[in-house]
Amino acid sequence: MRGERQNTTHYVTAAVIYHQRKDICTEMKKIFAVFAAFIMVLCMSSCGSDEKKPDKNAEVTTTEDPNTIEVPKLIGLERYQLEMKYSNLNFNYIDKYDDNAKQDVVIAQSPDPGTRIKKADEISVTISIGAKQVEVDDYKDQNIEAVKTLIEKQGLKYEIQYVESDTVQRNCVISTTPAARTMVDKGTMITCFVSLGSPQQEIRVPGMVGMSFEEAVKLAKGIVLVPKYDDTSQQEPGTIIEQSVDPNTIVEPNQRIEVTVAGERAIKTSTISVPIDSKLEAEFEVKFYIDGTLVEEKTVIKEISLTRVIDWEVSATDVHTYTIMVTSRTTGRSGKLIETEIDFTQNPPVQNPIEPANTGIFEELLRKETTAPAE
């Protein structure tokens, strides 16, 4: 009996273990089935994604011509950057003034960025060469007041430094920095070195008593003589009998000195005036003559487009001829602006034109001389 019970127990135990193992195998099969289904779904998803999103690069390489390139954006790059980064491209450089762009920077290109061209095709790039420059004029020996206007007209600035000079008249330009004929940007500061004169240039009053008034005017350079008439003097009419400042006195330029003139005829004053209406941007040297003699201290340089009138105040007691000549500083040609005779014996003085004012003389002197063909 005991042996039968033991056998029966063994059978039961074995049956239980068998069923447990069977259940475990069933569960494992389920897990493997779920895992396999997940793998299949994942693979299908990946394959579907590849079909919906083809390789763009692959599509470009198969449709675009390999002998063409896409033009890059070049505007804003500097010239050296073009040569380093795009040395394989065929550039045509065009230089252009530009007041707003830095020098050597690309300001335009053709074709536009993104355009496809053949590799050997030319790409035009416009390079800024900076603001347009102007030439510093030669202002040597010109009065600083006139030079200020000329410099500003060129779009330049100026500053003044006064220095002593043995050769250049007081208040006239000795030199400039930058020097004359130098090309500079607009807005550049021009330093004008202006003469203070020198002890050797000090103006001394000449002894004028006993001279005629006309002789004294020619002698007293840098001085303005103011005549006063004395009809009680026994001296020859027109003779200076007294001067308000003693001879050899040092005076300032253009100081007015009174002289007393003897004679029955009073010294009278008249003004020769020539209106100017010209847009020519050119400089002319203007010279003044009395009876054919140059009055050197009156010589002046004028920018004609800035000049509205050329006038000359003269004084005398009898009849004289007055001439104004002009010379172009561009062509070197000279001509007569006006010539007139003034009779100071009349009251008021009478002007009798010998050659009326020729305001067209400026255009004539600027024209190139032409030689008539030989007959």
CATH architecture of the largest domain: Sandwich
**So what's the oligomer here?**
single chain
- Number of helical elements: 6
* CATH topology group of the largest domain: Immunoglobulin-like
The outline comes out as rod-shaped
- Global Rg: 50 Å
Q: How many separate structural domains? A: 4
- The residue fraction in helices comes out at 10-25%
- What can be said about the biggest beta sheet? 6 strands, antiparallel
The string of secondary-structure elements, in order, is HHEHEEEEEHEEEEEHEEEEEEEEEEEEH
Distance between the termini: 169 Å
**How many distinct beta strands?**
23
Write down the overall mean pLDDT: 82
Which structural category fits the helices and strands?
alpha+beta
% residues in beta strands: 25-35%
